[in-house]
Design a protein that fits this description.
alpha+beta, 3 domains, 544 residues, single chain, 28 strands, Alkaline Phosphatase, subunit A, seven-stranded antiparallel sheet, Porin, ten-stranded antiparallel barrel
Length: 544
């Protein structure tokens, strides 16, 4: 293949064009969503010494003992809202089943909510949801440890650990606590691989209630009958909103529900319970809220010295963060301000949970401390604002941290140049790749049986690849190009699936002009890797 050396020279010159460097590297963040991790059980496990890696890494300063979450305390509500800085009033997913537009009866069912929730996360972390399925639980730990390797290209990494929540729902308290310990072990392996200047946030979306499981859904639907539009604990949507007060009392009297709330007027939220009534009033001009009652002060706020005055959100947090119903007036009223909030809120009291096929051993979604007390752990130079706080309102998290671009990704893939010698076929291969933008690569692979003469090549493959899928464990590429051999060209199709385990990357590649091959790469440094193909060759790859 005489005369092709100028092609190689031209491509190598393009490959070696220096890239613009950044003088000031942005801060790095790893954000870990620990689904269903109760702040109550977390602190109990810390005190028992069962979470040594988490407790030692974050220390007293970085563990916020009383973090209060969104209401309803549901996973889709938090996941879809928190990174956008949305409050409860603006939460795009108010529950698992909900009504988008009451006038047009636009209803989103569980499957639709699930998909919206999953695809509201980052591209890298979308498949984390699979690791919450029991058969795939074992993948979550290796994927978490892998996040350390992505810091070289990403400023913001988001990881979702669903296993704690899954174990609580399906298998109960003991399995739930064992999953805390499992996360702690893998978190320790992660921190061994990162520098001290990395900012790490571990937060949870809600707590978990174990105890008396009540099959409430069917009873509610039977009692409301034809007036029901949608019911998804704890929210009831009626065909006629004017019947909210009637059904609030009916459900309290004829079901195992302990509290019901409905909108009495624009400024008043009313509630019923067995021992009296609750009134939550809002001053929209001052953005303050007050709490009053008839009969018994079942929420217990007056016992702390409160006497019906209007308080700001921060004042309610200070007053109630250590109570049995933390932030209830704020959380309930803010939720009812959401256009998709529903007509009646139905709630179980402490020690009770809504039992379903999925949530057989434990559940959440209520307003008691068991469900509302979540978790917040912070460490890093950009997170000192949070140190030593006694309490925190979780919806504020990414409003209080400035400069996080959740859509950040590398401007391009890494260029590379690799060479290897095949002992079995007795030939050399030279491969280079340039990337004009993220998820796109172009390159060529040159084959020669004579190490000392690269003027004539046995074969050259020119190709382009696009990344269709990526997670913390794997990546899938599809590509096309052409083969140049004996001055004749022919088209090729390429499929490549990569598996990433710490510093190892295993490439499984199929092309229409050659047999399947397996390439293993060990990343000795961020810019140098040792490679073998089908264990019959050895070579080096240089990245930049």
């Amino acid at each position: 293949m005489k005369g092709n050396s100028h092609i190689l020279l031209t491509l190598l010159l393009l490959f070696l064009i220096p890239q613009k460097s950044e003088c000031n590297d942005p801060p790095k963040f790893i954000l870990i969503h620990l689904d269903g991790a109760s702040g109550i059980y977390f602190m109990q496990e810390v005190e028992k010494g069962n979470l040594p890696n988490l407790s030692s890494y974050f220390g007293d300063a970085g563990i916020i003992d009383h973090t209060i979450t969104y209401f309803p305390s549901k996973t889709p509500t938090v996941i879809s809202s928190i990174r956008l800085g949305d409050s409860i009033r603006d939460a795009p997913l108010p529950g698992w089943e909900w009504v988008v537009d009451k006038t047009e009866d636009v209803i989103v069912r569980t499957a639709g909510t699930f998909l919206r929730m999953v695809f509201s996360t980052s591209r890298l972390s979308t498949t984390n949801i699979l690791y919450g399925i029991p058969v795939f639980h074992w993948l979550a730990g290796p994927a978490l440890v892998n996040t350390a390797d992505y810091l070289k290209d990403y400023d913001i990494l988001q990881f979702y650990w669903y296993n704690i929540d899954t174990q609580g729902h399906f298998n109960g308290k003991e399995s739930y606590l064992r999953e805390f310990a499992k996360f702690d072990r893998y978190f320790g392996k992660l921190t061994e691989r990162i520098d001290d200047d990395i900012n790490i946030i571990v937060y949870s979306d809600h707590g978990m209630t174990f105890g008396n499981g009540i099959e409430i859904d069917r009873a509610i639907k039977d009692l409301v009958g034809q007036d029901l539009k949608v019911y998804s604990y704890p929210v009831l949507y009626l065909k006629d909103s004017e019947k909210a007060e009637y059904y609030s009392m009916k459900l309290l009297m004829e079901s195992e529900i302990d509290f019901t709330f409905f909108r009495k007027s624009d400024t008043v939220l009313s509630g019923f319970h067995e021992d009296g009534e609750i009134y939550i009033n809002k001053n929209y001009d001052e953005q303050t809220i007050s709490y009053e009652f008839k009969g018994s002060d079942v929420l217990g706020y007056y016992e702390t010295g409160y006497n019906g005055e209007y308080l700001s959100q921060d004042e309610w947090l200070e007053l109630t963060y250590n109570s049995d119903y933390p932030m209830a007036p704020v959380a309930l009223f803010h939720f009812m301000d959401n256009p998709a909030s529903g007509d009646v809120i139905t709630l179980l009291d402490s020690g009770k949970y809504g039992k379903t096929v999925y949530s057989n051993k434990g559940n959440h979604g209520g307003f008691t401390v068991e469900d509302m007390k979540s978790l917040l752990l912070v460490r890093g130079p950009q997170l000192e604002y949070f140190y030593n706080k006694d309490a925190y309102w979780l919806p504020n998290l990414f409003n209080d941290i400035r400069g996080i671009n959740f859509e950040q990704h590398p401007p391009r893939e890494r260029h590379y140049l690799s060479t290897r010698y095949d002992f079995h076929k007795n030939h050399f291969a030279l491969k280079f790749s340039i990337s004009p933008k993220y998820r796109i690569k172009y390159g060529a692979t040159l084959y020669n049986s004579d190490l000392y003469s690269w003027k004539d090549f046995d074969r050259i493959d020119f190709w382009g690849k696009a990344d269709l899928f990526r997670s913390y464990l794997s990546r899938f590429w599809i590509g096309t190009g052409f083969e140049l051999k004996d001055n004749e060209s022919s088209p090729i199709l390429i499929l490549q699936y990569d598996i990433h385990i710490r510093k190892w990357v295993f490439h499984n590649s199929f092309a229409t002009n050659r047999p399947f091959y397996f390439r293993a790469s060990f990343e000795a440094t961020p810019w140098l890797a040792i490679e073998t193909v089908n264990f019959t060759s050895l070579g080096l790859r240089f990245d930049f």
